[in-house]
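Practice problem 4.
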C-alpha cells in the first residue's frame, strides 16, 4: 500500500480507544496456522471497513474473507500465525477504516474454517 493510503488509514487511530475484544474460546491447537472468525459491531458498514480490513489482512499476510451481515455487523474469517492474527484482531478493534467506530469484536477460534488462497471481500 502506498504511503498516502497508509497515512489516510492510520489517520486518528492512535487517539481512538477501540472496541472491546471478547474471545469465546482459546487457541485450539499449537500449530503454525490458526483459524478464527470475528464479528465486529459498531459503525462498520458503509464506511470502508471491509476494504480497509482487506488491506490490513494483505499487509499482514492473512488469508480469509470479510463480508457485511444483514444485522449491521461485519463478519470475517482469518487464517495465519498467532502473531499475524493478534495484529489483525488489534486492527479490527481499532477500526481499520478512519470513518469506522468499533464497539465490539467477538473472536472465536475455529479449526473448521476453510483456508482460502488469499483474503477477499465477499459482498
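Answer key:
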Amino acid at each position: 500500500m502506498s504511503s498516502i493510503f497508509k497515512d489516510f488509514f492510520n489517520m486518528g487511530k492512535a487517539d481512538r480507544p477501540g472496541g472491546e475484544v471478547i474471545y469465546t474460546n482459546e487457541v485450539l491447537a499449537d500449530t503454525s496456522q490458526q483459524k478464527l472468525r470475528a464479528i465486529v459491531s459498531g459503525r462498520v458498514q458503509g464506511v470502508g471497513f471491509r476494504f480497509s480490513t482487506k488491506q490490513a489482512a494483505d499487509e499482514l499476510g492473512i488469508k480469509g474473507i470479510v463480508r457485511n451481515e444483514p444485522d449491521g455487523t461485519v463478519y470475517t474469517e482469518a487464517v495465519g500465525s498467532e502473531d499475524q492474527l493478534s495484529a489483525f484482531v488489534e486492527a479490527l478493534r481499532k477500526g481499520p477504516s478512519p470513518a469506522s467506530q468499533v464497539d465490539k469484536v467477538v473472536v472465536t477460534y475455529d479449526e473448521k474454517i476453510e483456508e482460502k488462497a488469499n483474503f477477499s471481500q465477499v459482498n
